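Apologies for my clumsy wording, but are you able to produce some protein sequence, whichever is easiest, and the tokens describing how it folds?
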Amino acid sequence: MSTTPVTTPPRGLAAPPEALDDDPPARVLMSPIGPSEVSPTTRVVTALQIARERGSDHLVVRGDGEIRAVAEVDLQRHLLEAGVRPSRMLDPVSAVATRVHGVGPETRRSRAAELMLAQDRPVLVVVENGEPCGLLDARSVLRSLAGGRDHRPTP
């Protein structure tokens, strides 16, 4: 009796994500930017309160011709690192915010995920006609992968 070796195909996707039908654009996944924007001079403690009140994981900070973002966790870390220096609560949010990639509203989910990994930041700013119009974060990307046909983030 002869035996035939069985080989298993390598695990992973059969095609790259951009070749799949289910690779929605950023405009479908993003959260509107309006309620998530603060001035660069907003104090760190105020920005943290705004993020919590609005239920935002990230805030957008625009100033000096650049778009930056700050995560709620980074604001918390900034305050905790103050230790005996409570004056750090008065620091402007621009001291904590970091520059993030901007993407167009038609940027596909797979490309957005690549950019998030490349910049090691879980958020992108969606820009249309030179103006930020939304935030796309890693949670929204994951939700879209797990959530079936309705890719819009839940409030």
